[in-house]
Each structure stands twice: as structure tokens, then as C-alpha cells.
Amino acid sequence: ADGSVEIPVVVNVVYNTTAENVSDARIAEQIAILNQDYSATNTDISKIPGEFQGVSSGDIKVKFRLVNTIRKKTTTKSWRTNDAMKKASSGGIDATSPTNYLNMWVVGKMTSQGQTILGYATFPESAGLWNDGVVIAAPFFGKTGASSPFNLGRTATHEVGHYLNLRHIWGDANCGNDLVDDTPTQTTANYGKPTYPLYNTCTGVQRSVMFMNYMDYVDDAAMFMFSAGQKTRIQSVVASSGARAGL
Ligand code: ARG
Ligand code: ZN
Ligand code: CA
Predict the structure, then answer these.
(1) Which of 13, 18, 38, 237 has its CB 3.0 to 4.6 Å from that of 165, i.e. a possible disulfide?
(2) Do 118 and 137 contact (CB within 8 A), yes or no?
(3) How far is it, in rounded angstroms, from Cα 189 to Cα 202?
């Protein structure tokens, strides 16, 4: 009625230990967090600095609804970002109709070149393919019992951002381009809990970077907004002519 697109979500839990078998309550909590963050009804929205309030996304008008949870015990203790969790033949769970459902996989642990990976996602270019969707490591999924400082469910907010066509805010390059006009160009990724204002060295940029954007790499407690330009990108991809119109 309010013009929102409702995205049906299938959560695929691939676990080895019982702790990795995240509860239904934790899944519901994660979906609720997505709904808050994507409608700008998150409780920390009031922290947006004055200079960015005018370009805050407001309600992105994309809602998430859990339609199924599929669970599978596996002998795999640690995963890589190679999509093995998305195939029954490699110990994972096959996606449910990825054209029509946002598939989320929760795995116990993920690494890449020895580093812990919180999550990863496919962009709309992969819409409907067998590997289309979002993967989150269990310690960073939901809130209750999750692992600080990534324990506010915002790894999913960030990964679903990629799934809905958002780039990293620094454009994955030194002073790179995220294809969004209202996010200031920034030198590189930010980590931890930066103090506002935070200036950088990109030519012609004389204002703080928007490190509190969900598409930066700061701690969960330090990110609390999308921009209006990011909302426009998301709306185009879920529109009837967009790559994710099937959702
Ligand atoms: N490293 C991941 C990615 O690039 C996720 C980062 C999530 N950050 C967070 N504060 N939860 O997709
Ligand atoms: Zn990312
Ligand atoms: Ca930008």
C-alpha cells in the first residue's frame, strides 16, 4: 500500500556445531534489523551528522519477509568464498528459486587467505543464477549472541546492499567511484569507530567522508545510514524493468 517492494527471503543454515545452527529467534531478529535499517527506523538514525541529514535515504521502501528456513548439518568446519555452501553436492544447500527469493546462507566460519570473512554477496548481474544471494558467517548474523563489534546485524544490511546494486562507498579504489553522487568521494575503507568529521585527501573533496554509511567497513555500531542516491539505485534494480524485478 505504501509502494514498498516486499522481498521474500529463504535462510539456508549450513552448520557444523550446534552454536552455528542459529535459532529461529535469531533469524527473526536479523530480518527485523534489515527491515529497520532499510526503512531508516533504526534507533541510531538520530546519530546522522547535520551535514548528511539532507541526503539520508529515508524509507528505501524495500521490506523483507522470511518465507522459509532450511537447515543442514555438514562436516565442513570452515568455508571459503567459493560458493560451496550453495551446492548440496559440496556439503551446502541449493538455492531456492533465486529469481524469486533472496537466498541467504549462514555458515559457521569463513576465511579468505587466512582472514576472517564476515559475509559476501552477488550483485544484480548474477540475478537468478544458482549462486545468487548473500552469505553471512554465523557469529555476525543477527544480534543476540553475535560477536562484537559486528553484533548488530549489519553485515546482512551491508551484504544485501551489494545484492541490491550498491558498491562500497570508497569505490574499491583510492578515491574510487561508488556511482552515487551524494556520498562524498573517500580515499579508502574506514574501520573501527571513526570520529566525525573525518577528512581525506581526495582532490576537491573538502567535507567529511560518510563513514557512517552501511557500505563502508566500520563497526556495526558506527554505521547507521544509506543515502538518497543509494535508495535511487536500489529502487531501479527492484523496479519492473530492473534486474531484480522477479523478487
Ligand atoms: N567484508 C564484508 C564485505 O565487503 C562485510 C563488511 C561488513 N561490515 C560490518 N560492519 N558488519 O562484503
Ligand atoms: Zn562489501
Ligand atoms: Ca560517491
Answers:
(1) 237
(2) yes
(3) 13
